[in-house]
Amino acid sequence: MERLKQTILAEGKVLSNTVLKVDAFLNHQIDPALMEEIGKEFADRFAAAGITKILTLESSGIAPAVMAGLVLKVPVVFARKRKSLTLTDHLYSAQVHSFTKQETNEISISQTFITQDDTVLIIDDFLANGQAVFGLIDILKQAKATIAGIGIVIEKSFQDGGKSIRNAGYRVESLARIAHLSDGNVTFLEEEN
Ligand code: 5GP
């Protein structure tokens, strides 16, 4: 997605050879117009998949997921990382090791909101080693829901997540795929080929 790539080049900050900071438009301040376009793109790519719900992870997956949900006209559920006083229902939970925070969180959703009748699109902001996505897949397996695929805003293709999830048989659609981060520069996958 060209506009996303241009925004990454203009506003992203390469913190190291493995971490890209996108606080200016996705992870802290949010660019609603860009999110709208991202939502439309996910909705287009999964238009024929019969999606009934979108599942994401708080907090940075919520903006792109809501925009996709708006276009597909389906509800968006976000898994919570912290136990909440109001999250009192029966839960589906999974362990997720965070790449950026280097800590393991239990993520949970209420069993009320996703059932075996749902066909679910998973959306997240970044794909690195795939821990977050595999945690969400784990939750959907517990719910016996159908997994239509995974929509990722920024995939770091030099890390293993994309390969592992595709090898496990899931459809992954990433709007920007980064081949490498080096010397402060971002190189997208297509530029290499
Ligand atoms: P994974 O679980 O695939 O290893 O990592 C994905 C999660 O870690 C995403 O939900 C995202 O929040 C965070 N993450 C991974 N890599 C980056 C990165 O380079 N920059 C930012 N801002 N977040 C990242």
From TrEMBL:
Xanthine binds at residues 20, 27, 156. Its EC number is 2.4.2.22. It catalyses: XMP + diphosphate = xanthine + 5-phospho-alpha-D-ribose 1-diphosphate. Pathway: Purine metabolism; XMP biosynthesis via salvage pathway; XMP from xanthine: step 1/1. Coiled coil: none annotated. 5-phospho-alpha-D-ribose 1-diphosphate binds at residues 128-132. It is an enzyme of class 2 (transferase). InterPro entries: PRTase-like, PRTase_dom, Pur/Pyrimidine_PRTase, Xanthine_PRibTrfase. It is found in: Cytoplasm. NCBIfam families: PRK09219.1 (NF006671), XPRTase (TIGR01744). This is Xanthine phosphoribosyltransferase.
